[in-house]
Design brief:
Length: about 260
């Protein structure tokens, strides 16, 4: 089914690399008007030039950046149809190793930034011409379901994303009927962020093998596979899907392994 997002205006945060870049490519292929936001300006500009998309510099933890980004989208386009809250960071630390600085860094980007995006996107979506409509897709993690001992703040942030998405979904369903919110929960993914975590370990190759084998399918998840899930939730095919979690975990939760 080509052109599944034809005519839709889509903002993808953290869109310069990894899951965000794969989602930007797929959405563009499906007919969307794509706006990529990130703090990686060189990579973001290059991807936008490649795709014929728009790149904006945005720190998602800053309220003023959200207002500026959404304001420019409203000014340049008729509104916003899809928000993919993908921007995120990882800081490896157990609870005993987690300083207040690490905690605040991770929560500010992964949870507070996502909350700001949902709030500001709803304000735009509810004013869409022809009636309120929209899809908010929050990229969480398998750690929204299970604990990662070496990522206390990260686990807390991703668990928060899961339940915040449900709260938003119920509010929007009752108030606007046609604004949806769902979360996507990948297993371990072969992305630059995870590669950096592997390289920071004592034995990167062993760490990579361990995370590959956490999925019963025996490999890490590809960014394109997560992008496909986001495409479904962004499309009209998912018009009755809200407040749910979509697992892209290679069977992890079907046969859970302790971290």
């Amino acid at each position: 089914m080509p052109d599944r997002l034809n005519g839709k205006v889509c903002l993808i945060t953290g869109g310069a690399s990894g899951i965000g870049a794969a989602t930007a490519r797929l959405f563009k292929d499906e007919g969307a008007t794509v706006i990529i936001s990130d703090v990686q300006d060189a990579a973001g500009d290059a991807l936008a030039d490649e795709l014929g998309a728009t790149y904006v510099h945005q720190d998602v933890s800053q309220e003023e950046d959200w207002k500026r980004t959404l304001g420019s989208i409203v000014s340049d386009h008729r509104g916003l149809d899809v928000l993919v809250n993908n921007a995120g960071i990882f800081r490896g630390a157990t609870i005993e190793e987690t300083s207040l600085e690490i905690w605040r860094q991770v929560i500010d980007v992964n949870l507070t930034g996502l909350m700001l995006g949902c709030r500001e996107a709803i304000a735009v979506m509810k004013d869409n011409s022809g009636g309120p409509s929209g899809s908010i897709i929050n990229i969480s993690s398998i750690t929204g379901f299970v604990g990662l001992a070496s990522g206390a703040a990260y686990t807390a942030s991703k668990g928060g994303v899961r339940l915040l998405s449900k709260s938003i979904a119920v509010h929007c369903a009752r108030t606007y009927r046609n604004i949806r919110c769902n979360s996507v929960h990948p297993g371990t993914i072969d992305t630059p962020m995870n590669q950096a975590a592997f390289e920071a370990s004592e034995d990167p190759a062993a760490m990579r093998d361990m995370f590959s084998n956490l999925q019963p399918i025996g490999r890490m998840i590809r960014s394109e596979e997560v992008a496909g899930a986001a495409l479904y939730l962004a499309s009209d095919e998912a018009s009755a899907v809200t407040g749910t979690e979509l697992l892209i975990d290679g069977g992890w939760l079907a046969a859970p392994n302790p971290l």
